[in-house]
Amino acid sequence: MDYTELENTVDGLRFAWNVWPSSRIEAARIVVPLGVVVTPLKEIPDMPVLPYEPVRCKSCPCVLNPYCRVDFQAMIWVCPFCLHHNHFPQHYAQINESMLPAELFQQYAMVEYQLAAPVRSPPTFLFVVDLCLPDDELRDMKEAIKQALALLPDTALVGLISFGAMVNVHELGFSEVPKAYVFRGTRETSAAEVAKMLGLGVAPMRGKQGMPAAASAPGLGRFLLPLADCEFALESALDDLQPDASPHQPSERPLRAIGAAAGVAVGLLEACVPGCGARIMVLTGGPCTTGPGLVVGVDKAEAIRTHKDLEKGESKQFTRACKFYDGLAARLVEAGHCLDVFACALDQVGLAEMQMPVACTGGVMVLAETFGHDLFRKSLGRMFERSAGGSLQMGFNATFEVLCTKEVKIAGASGPIASLKRRNASVSDQETAVGGTCAWKLCALSPRTSLAVFFDVVNTHNAPVPDGQLFLLQFLTHYQHPDGQQRLRVVTTARRWASPGANEVAMGFDQEAAAVVMARLASYRCATEEAFDVLRWLDRMIIRLAAKFGQYQKDNADTFTLPDGFTLFPQFLFHLRRSQFLQVFNNTPDETAFYRLMLDRENVTSSLVMIQPPLLSYSFQGPPHPVLLDVQSIQPDAILLLDTYFMVILHYGTTVAQWRKARYQDQPEHQEFRDLLAAPLADAKELLKGRLPVPKLLETDQGGSQARFVLAKLNPSATHTSPAFQTSSSEVIFTDDVSLQVFLEHLARLAVQS
């Protein structure tokens, strides 16, 4: 079965196990958790958008779906979750077996409702910009913001805050002269203080006739205005921005109050657009050096914290900064707003400290070297790309709720979410990731945003489920559309129970989804456990899985084999163990925070690219073809294209590199060589499309300094300790890591042990 096709064309779901054990004991024995990767706003072809209210069960949140039993004579439908009998509303009086509403069609596992709730305020975009930049960097940043503004709808509300040593809130509605309110950057400002300082506690201004109710909130018309009404004022304010004038010595970092600025931005949105979709977009060129959220002192002799410092507890500011940003995260979730961070600097800026408010609100995190870099400019522009219908490709202020049948309980979820602490009889006592609830908040999401939901089977072994019975899951996503309209996306799915001892469970294993579920859990555990302990946990899990589903004779590793549906799973986990998600060597805390944040929100296909990057080879020997992610795939007469998701790398073999440097491609008689160079570059540029953040494109020669990015991802089947190292001319990797072959041999030996 092609699980990817089902995900892309039916319901946006990937199950680690597509057939579930029918008892708690059997479920514990299959090792890999019962996880489902859900893409709530997945773009499904021909998905119906229904211009009416959903029909809900009277005793539970269930929405009418194809798995409900319907009595057309009595006009009653039975909820498949709580078995409550419900009457159809009056406007359904004409339905019958041959005239069904769209939500009862079997092919519509996913439907969306346009709700009649009042239209909320249009989405708000509050730009929070760093002034502690050189002239050229500040100019590039302002140009990028202006280009982004051109992509926003005219109705979108926009605002501007700038910061250096002080925080400036620009009043765009005051057209006579430029006007800004200044806050101290050395202290945290509460929401009440922000409202008082900005005069937001007074009676709200009268809204224009026909505008949504939220448009008459205090501050709208002054600090937040529709783009069509303030585009000139906003661009003028941007043009007037100058590098921060606070004095500092060459041996000192500038005073940069990122934390204070973020706090003021949160307070402004809390007062103006609570409960409405909004994004705080922080653009910074360095770390916070003053006030709340301090990452490093102003003296450049003080190095910014590393992973070693965090392991030893030697970063005195880290805990305080994390506590401050955790507080901001709670306020953002409560108000339904999200935080985006665009960090453009050669050094760290403190993303590890800022990770929580970005991660739990669904914000975007971008790492670039400068504000003039393509990675930053294209990523900022890609955020505001429109769908085929002309709307922004994002949802706001969403809630995600899960329903399940009585034999199943909800253990938790992972992703850009925050718990709503909504507990009912379907919630498991055993928590996995963010658990203890059946509903979560997503302050911002896109068609790419994916969550992993974990379940427990609670049915007892002595109460067997009748053969052929299905279990049901329903996922409800209530969100604000970019046009301000409230919508409800409903996904209902069914899977089969397996009979005890049957082989059906193994046949329904989706090794790709299972690898992503395990990767998310491992990444989540890294936040609270030592990396060594997480690796040991992964090893134990794969050994138990191999022992459970492998075919072998006891204590004879040579007889060990895995079923067809399991053969790639150990390989995925081998590369996961070596990945930047679990190995922090050669990465900064900021980079680690960024990588883990991205893994926790992408779908199965994208996550697998991160875990085990695809490798393509281009040569004169034939058309481009996939090759093993192995050092032996490096050939002097071939070009390799490696896609790590975060970087797309073109690796030229030594012979190809020499030909290119000799400019053979410029000679008419070497058209084939010119085509060989052009093909991987064209494919690489195609890979850059559709991702946010935009990947970095690198070109390197075999043996070049940046070839290390390729070697780090390859299986070290040939190393400096290999017997043929002294005589072989092929590429080797200088590492003490074991190869995939050794890893699989150890796995077989441990799995077959008595």
TrEMBL record:
Task: Give the Sec23/Sec24 trunk domain ranges.
Answer: 121-384
Question: Any idea which UniProt keywords this protein has?
Answer: Cytoplasm, Cytoplasmic vesicle, Endoplasmic reticulum, ER-Golgi transport, Golgi apparatus, Membrane, Metal-binding, Protein transport, Transport, Zinc
Please report the record's description of how this protein sits within the membrane: Peripheral membrane protein
A Gene Ontology cellular component where this protein is annotated is: Golgi membrane
Pfam family membership, one? Sec23_helical
Chain ranges of the Sec23/Sec24 helical domain: 510-608
Q: What is a GO molecular function of this protein? A: zinc ion binding
Residue span(s) of domain Zinc finger Sec23/Sec24-type: 54-92
What exactly does this protein do?
Component of the coat protein complex II (COPII) which promotes the formation of transport vesicles from the endoplasmic reticulum (ER). The coat has two main functions, the physical deformation of the endoplasmic reticulum membrane into vesicles and the selection of cargo molecules.
- The entry's protein name is Protein transport protein SEC23
Q: Which organism is it from?
A: [Myrmecia] bisecta
